[in-house]
Amino acid sequence: MDHSSNTQCVLYLLKTYGPSLTTAQIIEHASKHPELCKGCKSGGQVITTCINLTKTGILERDTIKGGFVWKIKHE
After folding, report:
1. Which residues, in sequence order, are bridge partners of residue 69?
2. Which of 12, 35, 45, 65 has the most crowded Cβ, counting Cβ within 10 A?
3. What is the pTM of this model?
C-alpha cells in the first residue's frame, strides 16, 4: 500500500469536496477517482492515513456519532 498516494487522495478530496468530510464521505468520493485513490477503499485505510496527517499537523479530527470528521488545519 502506497501511503503517499493515500495522502494525496485524502488531501485532494478534502480540497475538492470539503471543507470537511466524514470517513464514509471520503470513501464515497474516492470511488469517483480510482486513478488517484487506489488505496482509500476501506475505513481502516482512510482512518490510518488521516490519523497520520493529523499527527503531522495537516488535518484536524472531530469525533461525531458513528465516526470522525476530517478537515484541513488552517495555519
Report:
1. 22, 62
2. 45
3. 0.90
